User: What shape does this take?
Amino acid sequence: MIYVMRHGSLEDRTTLEDWSDERVRENTRTMIASGLGSTAVVLSSTAGRAVVTAEVVAEELGGAELVKSSRIEIGADWPGLSCVRKLDDLFAKALEEEGASTDISEGLVVVAHTPLVAAVDDGRLGRDWGIGYGQMVEYEPGSWPERTDVNEEWLETAVAKALAERRG
Assistant: This one.
């Protein structure tokens, strides 16, 4: 199973606000109760608020591997999400680019932004999302409807630029 979570709310640049931290931890405990554990992978956007949230999730899972990806930051936010043909491919490419295993049979938690969580939740690709900080939804691999009306070139160009800047 794949869980997609919106990042928490930051009190400062390094700490989640108390209520947000508790919501993230509570949702992670729900994932643990469903069988997720330290062998899962936590895939995060490179945005600070997502990384801080992912660190909390990885800690709660008992030291799960944490992978930070520019592809998730760009492809899981607007307008990048509108360029995603297959969501499973977005996750696999992000893991591969960062040198992580693409075997997610032990579970995957993706910490990203509102547009991705809303799209997984009910297919919304608009701007009226209403997704709370730390909100989590389940995603069944392969259930994303393949989209044919996408500009994959835009997404690939944006990701390549971000990776080049990061690796500088």
